Amino acid sequence: MDCTTSTTTRGGGLAGGCRRCCSGLTPPGPFQTAEAKAEVIAELALVVSFLIAIDPYRSDAAAIAVSDSLPANLMMLLVPAIHQAAVVLQLPPERQSQWGWCSWCCAADMAGILSSKELADALKEHLCPPAQPSDDDSDSGEVSSNAQRLLSTACQLVAHVPLNLTDETPSSLGLQLRYFAALLSSLCSHINAALALAVWQQLVYQFQGYNGVWQPGARYPRLAQQLVQVLPRLPATLQLLMEGGPLRYVSGCVVGVSGAWSAAVCLLQTLQTRCPTIVSSWSELPAWCKAITALLKGQALTAELAGQYESQPTEQDALLKLDAALSQSIFHLASGAIAFAEKQHTSLSGFDAPLPGATVAAAETALWDLHTAQCRSAHRQAADRDEYNWNLYLDSTNQTLLTAWRLHQCVQQGVSQPFGRCCKQSYATQAA
Predict the structure, then answer these.
(1) Which residue has better confidence, 119 or 360?
(2) Whose CA is closest to 119, among 169, 64, 68, 164?
(3) What 3-state DSSP class applies to 16?
(4) Burial class (CB in 10 A: 0-12, 13-18, 19+), 199
(5) Which long-range CB contacts under 8 A does 24-29 form with residues at least 24 apart?
(6) Where does the source fall among the domains of life (predicted)?
(7) Residue 241 in contact with residue 248, Cβ under 8 Å?
(8) Model pLDDT, residue 432
(9) Nearest to residue 377, comparing CAs of 319, 333, 331?
(10) Is the Cβ–Cβ distance between 3 and 21 less than 8 Å?
(11) Is the pTM of this model over 0.85?
(12) Which DSSP symbol is given to 13?
């Protein structure tokens, strides 16, 4: 099936050509190789992305939306393809050559289609299958494995898309960021809504007299780790939108990027609220500290950006929403991460097995970096915060400082059990 030649007629024929192309690929024909099928899917993604993005083709985009089979077939083809693209694009360039169809532009086309309003219902059906077995023995609750996998892919794409303009024009890079951000935003919003629905259902069950205690699904920490890995990209993407930045005037980029980060931060806070023990090991703590440090840096950039976009109310509104999301979440996320260290400090049993020195050193460095970022943020916001919020920020900053100092003491003394019995005995000896 030649996707190019089958989608060349106008007047609704383009959507019909896409439908015929999808029909020839789902299921794959007996003579299709994996590489040939992937190349056709990439061509199809280019055509469909063009239809839903360009005004003269609105009738074709509308035909896609109302088609009985095309949205579902596109979902069936593009989801596995974008999963593969996210993996291939992280390989060294010399190893990507065997996937000639795969590029950042192609992946962006797929992301744009999956997050488009034309496929909104199909995406919802994919993320909320009627019956999907759990991947683990625990009750995963309201987050399907489809949602988890697609969120992981979206995070990988946002985290690794090249942000330099060596090989890309500003408009091309801006389009990629906008489409990847749209997919990330759609997924975070969907998962957040699913979590809120679960809370409501739990309240209804309790009101009706059903006993039982809700337990967070095993996927919650995994979902949080995916977001923690992508949030350090926030300052770099905002920097591209600053005055004089290469993406400042790319259509839709400011709104898309700001909306995606707002949705990601809100979802991470929701996950932490629903699962307070979401940080469960010292090896996880550096990534959390790095993510929160990035949020603090992003908050400063967001405030500056909002001032630069006073003449563009749509963009400024999106930035102000991001600033509000960051203001509401940073303290809670930092306190939750530090609470893990505090719990270990107050535990008499501590660690039964020694921790690797590199793990302790990485946690110490991450905590110092977080403390530095918190101090800078506190100085910057001193004139803007009321007393209550100011005290919250100081409490979080002091907790980080104390935890970093304790780790530093352990490293200096060669203690490999940071907040266990050995470390407490060492402190008692020093005090005596």
Answers:
(1) 119
(2) 64
(3) helix
(4) middle
(5) 25/1, 25/73, 25/77, 26/73, 26/76, 26/77, 29/1
(6) Eukaryota
(7) yes
(8) 44
(9) 331
(10) yes
(11) no
(12) H
